[in-house]
Amino acid sequence: DGGITQSPKYLFRKEGQNVTLSCEQNLNHDAMYWYRQDPGQGLRLIYYSHIVNDFQKGDIAEGYSVSREKKESFPLTVTSAQKNPTAFYLCASSQASSGGANEQFFGPGTRLTVL
Amino acid sequence: KNEVEQSPQNLTAQEGEFITINCSYSVGISALHWLQQHPGGGIVSLFMLSSGKKKHGRLIATINIQEKHSSLHITASHPRDSAVYICAVRSDSGGSNYKLTFGKGTLLTVNP
Fold it and tell me: How far is it, in rounded angstroms, from Cα A51 to Cα B109?
């Protein structure tokens, strides 16, 4: 089946530890995105990537890092510098075409709790 | 002020009722998305539209570009429609702008 997978679904970490969230897609999409969702707020963009080996900061990139070494994979690292890391993290992907609007497909999400 | 405003925030309906969720936005857009998020958290794309109206089963989405407003309608609502419905817009600022701006969502509960 084509789709986006995120793992794990639930993740617990101690304060001060870095943690990496996985996102893999087999849709052959060029663009991938990481969003954060907090209660009562809309999704906010953390990082996005249009092409392999290139990525851009979103609206709330501080305390996060990403890599895009493969088209299929866009892992997100939540570093100890992120002051409020407990949240629901969603990965998405879409076809990339200049000027065109493309549907984004979302993964199931990872709920990160920092203790 | 959020660029994307949804109303109502919460909506409770009886099975069979006609549902309308509204979305207003303040920027020029190239596309508007309606998304559905179930309690488990996963998000499904329902519609992407830039003009007019789209229909899929019992769901209908309309957009009025001049008024910067979109509506999502659900006919003959069912308890399985209970979810958070999210409106998101892509601005028309040009270039390779793939960013979406999201509303806060409307929590729909359909009672049997």
Answer: 39
Give the C-alpha separation, B10 to B14, whole Å. 14
Q: Which two tokens stand for residue A88?
A: 């629901």
| CA dihedral angle for residue B52, residue B71, residue B80, residue A110, rounded to 10 degrees | 100
DSSP 8-state assignment for residue A70: B
Chain B residues at the A interface, defined by Cβ less than 8 Å, are 2, 4, 30-31, 33, 35, 40-45, 48, 50, 86, 88, 90, 94-96, 98-105
Alpha-carbon gap, residue B6 to B32, rounded angstroms: 13
Chains A, B: CB contacts within 8 A come to 65
Q: Of all helices (H) and strands (E), which one includes residue B22?
A: strand B19-25
> Mutate which of A104, A110, A112, A113 to test chain B, going by most B C-beta atoms within 10 A?
A104
**What is chain B's pLDDT, residue by residue, as a tens digit (112 residues)?**
568 999 999 999 999 999 999 999 998 888 999 999 998 888 999 999 999 999 999 999 999 999 999 999 999 999 999 999 999 998 876 554 567 899 999 999 999 9
Residue B99 identity: K
Q: How many CB atoms lie within 10 A of CB A84?
A: 9
3-state secondary structure of B109: strand
**Residue A74 identity:** F
Q: How many CB atoms lie within 10 A of CB B44?
A: 12
Q: Please give the C-alpha separations between residue B88 and each of A43, A70, A72, B38, in angstroms, as whole numbers.
A: 9, 28, 25, 17
* Cβ(B8)–Cβ(B106) below 8 Å: yes
